[in-house]
Amino acid sequence: MTRKLGDATLTMVNGGYFRLDGGAMHGVVPKTLWSRLSSCDDKNRCSYATNCLLVEIGHKRLLVETGNGDKFSPRDKDLYGIDHDRSVAVALAELGVEAASIDYVVMTHLHFDHAGGSTRKTESGSLDPVFPRAQHIVQRAELDAATHAHERNRASYLAENFAPLLDAGLLQLVDGACEIVPGVSVIPTPGHSHGHQSILIDGGNGEKALFLGDVVPTQVHVRLPWIMGYDLNVEETLASKKRIFARAIAERWLVLWGHDRRHGGYLAYDGSGQPVVAELVDV
Predict the structure, then answer these.
(1) Are 185 and 199 spatial neighbours (Cβ–Cβ below 8 Å)?
(2) What Å distances lie between residue 113 and 48, 69, 166, 176, CA to CA?
(3) Full-model pTM
(4) Cα distances (angstroms) measured from residue 193 to each of 38, 79, 272
(5) Mean pLDDT value of segment 192-201
(6) Quick one: pLDDT band at residue 148, thresholds 50, 70, 90?
(7) Of 86, 87, 174, 249, which has the highest C-beta tally within 10 A?
(8) pLDDT tens digit string along 209-255?
């Protein structure tokens, strides 16, 4: 399935399903509330997609996120409920899109479920970039966090997912909001991580889409207090949500979630002034 957005063509690609603890995913929201909307297994884990977005615009191909990848150990597969060895490159190849045809990879942040598909293990055991021509765009603050990880975030930042990109000269650092190619820009949305960014696609005819990443990972997280326990700075996440929701609603942006099985939708304010999902959309 693809969706035209003015001059841009959007295709959502699944980088693999996995499971995360339901309590951690919903923060201070009690299970009596979130369990009505998100089912969990006997280990209290909810199932999520790792959404990756192929953007084709102006003769350029950009991939937003690279998913889980296929480098997990048996232990970690069991821990995160991963029952596949499927990378986003395989999913793209099934669409007729070769990894070498990607011009840019834009990652919201460098956690393993967003950057894991950026590298692969060779038969000799070395690590190679999956997208050999692509510049990989991240915020400078994000790379700094990833390379100076601490006890709170160390399990999410795996050097195997980004160090080979640095070695190959394929990691392009940006500071704040900037345009990657005409029609595609990044917007800082900190909170989940210090250098988290979201990706804005402008089709050129008034239509825009915003890939949210983990600032709003699923549709239930549109509710302002619903913020993941994984977020390093909850108040920053809340401020980021309020800021981007105001623009998304005023300008009728299509918002795209990082982990929902439904891809995205359009937002509105309800009668009490709270943001809600007014229409669901798949890409």
Answers:
(1) yes
(2) 10, 8, 19, 22
(3) 0.97
(4) 24, 22, 30
(5) 98
(6) very high
(7) 87
(8) 999 999 999 999 999 999 999 999 999 999 999 999 999 999 999 99
The 3-class SS string of the chain reads CCEEECCEEEEEEEEEEEEEEHHHHHCCCCHHHHCCCCCCCCCCEEEEEEEEEEEEECCEEEEECCCCCCCCCHHHHHHCCCCCCCCHHHHHHHCCCCHHHCCEEECCCCCHHHHHHHEEECCCCCEEECCCCCEEEEEHHHHHHHHCCCCCCCCCCCHHHCHHHHHCCCEEEECCCEEEECCEEEEECCCCCCCCEEEEEECCCCCEEEEEECCCCCHHHHCCCCCCCCCCCHHHHHHHHHHHHHHHHHCCCEEEECCCCCCEEEEEECCCCCEEEEEEECC
What is the residue type of 37?
A: L
Joined together, the tokens standing for residue 167 give 């070695």
User: Rounded to whole angstroms, how far apart are CA atoms 22 and 110?
Assistant: 22
| Spatial CB neighbours of 189, under 8 Å, sequence gap ≥ 6 | 108, 196, 197, 198, 212, 213, 215, 240, 244
Tokens of 210: 């915003």
- What number of CA atoms fall less than 13 Å from residue 222's CA on the CB side? 26
Q: Give the C-alpha separation, 88 to 66, whole Å.
A: 6
